[in-house]
Every structure is written in structure tokens, then in C-alpha cells.
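Pipeline run #58 for the internal structure catalog. This entry was flagged by the ingest filter as a single-chain record with no existing model, so it goes straight to prediction. Upstream metadata was stripped on purpose; only the residue string is passed forward. Reviewer on rotation: M.T. Logging verbosity set to normal.
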Amino acid sequence: MSDSIVIIPTYNERENIEKVVRNVLSLPEEFHILVVDDSSPDGTGAIVKRLQTEYSDRLFLEERKDKSGLGTAYIHGFRWCIARAYDYIFEMDADFSHNPDDLPRLREACVSGADMAIGSRYIKGVNVVNWPMSRVLMSYFASWYVRLITGITVRDATAGFVCYRREVLKTIPLDRIRFVGYAFQIEMKFTAIKYRFRVVEIPIIFTDRTEGVSKMSTRIFREAFFGVIQMKVNSWFRTYNRE
């Protein structure tokens, strides 16, 4: 039984899902994978089911009826993994923008004392490949904006490549996490820090997808921009006590 599991949320990722599953499961360290698929009409779920015959004890699939957003997919996955007592629970995209070879580095950071390890694009300059400059600037200044409003020091606040120790996800009241896109990633980091968990950033190189379609939209960006202010104001009226 592995103590580490990678949650991969999917919607129409048939071009990438088999390759990313095989890549993660071929690492020298033993990781499990939970795919949370929002009933992809392109057959992503069917590909995962076929792969389960080969990796029956390491690859798991949760299928949801509706396309309900990244944040709710991860929260569904967090609860599934907590119930099965995994010690290290990861977030990772299906499109190879996150390099599976970096998973052991994130895990090692948590084994060595961090509660949450972030694969950061901006801790050592700007390490992004194949993004247009407009997208780089938007992402970089979004993280600057988050630091300005919230006071947290995380350089890559919108990063979606993360390792959590189970205690973090058991402590954060997941039913109170409100956002679903970029803002979900910000809210999780902000909340972990408010609970005084140790959050570290590990430098990675982020490579934009070469296959499939990006899920970024102006609605998601708008949620992040205004959601940060709402999140900060709401925090003034909450207590963050660890039991």
C-alpha cells in the first residue's frame, strides 16, 4: 500500500490521460492515482477504466455526473483519499504542464517537515515554457496581487501542483471552501497558512499543454480577482484553530 496518491481531475483529456497515468505509475517511487472525471464526453473515463485492468491496485476512478469545476473535483478527491488514509495527497494536471518527475521532490519536502509543498513557477524567476507573454504576465501579477491583498508570501499562489500532508486536508473545513477555478488554489493556500501549517515552494518548470484544450476562461480569472478580496474580508470573521 502506497502512502502517496495523485489526484488528477479530468474533463476531455483523452489525448493526455493514458500517457500521464503511465508516466506517474512508472516512477521508481510508488504512487497511486485517483482520476476524478466529470463525465467527459470524449471518453476519458473509458480510457481510465481500460488502464485499471492493468493497474487495478494503483489506479482509481471517480466519475461525477456534471462538469462542476476544478475545486469541487479536488474536494471530492480529498475526501476520497482521506477516507483511505493516504499520508501524502497531491494535486496535478492531466496535460503534462506539471512534470510527473517532480512528484518525488514535492513528497520529500513534506516528508522533511513541510505540511504543504507547492510546485512553484516563480520562486526562481519565471519558469514557464510555451506560454504567450500575456498569459505569463496575467499569472505572475495575479500572484503579486494575492500577496498584496492577503499578506501571504507565496510566490505562486495560483499553482495547481501541490502535495499536502493528510493532516492539512483533515483540518481545513472543506465544505467551507467556496471557489472553483484559480481562486480555489489561492483559497487552499491562504487557508492552510491561516491554520499555521508550514507551506514551502519547490521550483519547477511549467510547460503549457501541447494536446487538448485549456480550461482557462475570463470567468475563472474574474472569480480569482474579486474572490481574493472577498476571501480576505471573510477571514476577519473566522477563527482558525487546529484541534
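catalog note: The beta strands are 4-10, 32-37, 59-63, 88-91, 116-120, 128-129, 162-165, 199-203, 206-207.
catalog note: The chain has one domain: 4-235.
status: ready for reviewer M.T.
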